[in-house]
Design goal:
This protein is mainly β. The protein is built from no helices and ten strands.
Amino acid sequence: MLYGIVRNNIIHAKQPHDVMIEMVRATGWLVAHNTVIGRNPAPGLTWSIEARFAESQGTFANNLTNMDIWADRDGACTAATHNVTAAQSDWFVSGAPVSAEDADLHLVPTAIDAIDTTAQLPQVLTDIDGNARGLGDGADAGADEVADPLVLDERIYLPIVLRWPNDRNYPTPSSARDRPIW
């Protein structure tokens, strides 16, 4: 039975920080489609999301983070599926923001390791902006669904050269000075 959902959050920690999403002695929860980016973790901290203690039972799904997810800390009994834990700065609109105010952690179309990599969840049908999920071959990891996937244009554009026919209706180089410009 599902009792609660933590979904579509963007968490960006630039200052020294501990774990950013923690499920402690909670049951029946779903933590899904969150973007969690830690830039300055406490010494020894290598994870950003965790479940703790044997009473904790739930699921971590489709989250995007630059740190590990510790799903079974201190005996927690949780599932972890389709999470991406290797997010890079260039996957986001703002790259590596200087401050929280500058942080735009929406995905860019070139973040292919996060786009269309997860399963559609019936509990999370839209993203943080209200866009439908699963616009491509799957749902995107994290809080943002890229609305316009990258489309490579393989066409070649050539310049066009127009030649005027040499008759009385079109100016020629010698007669152009004598005719009005239309």
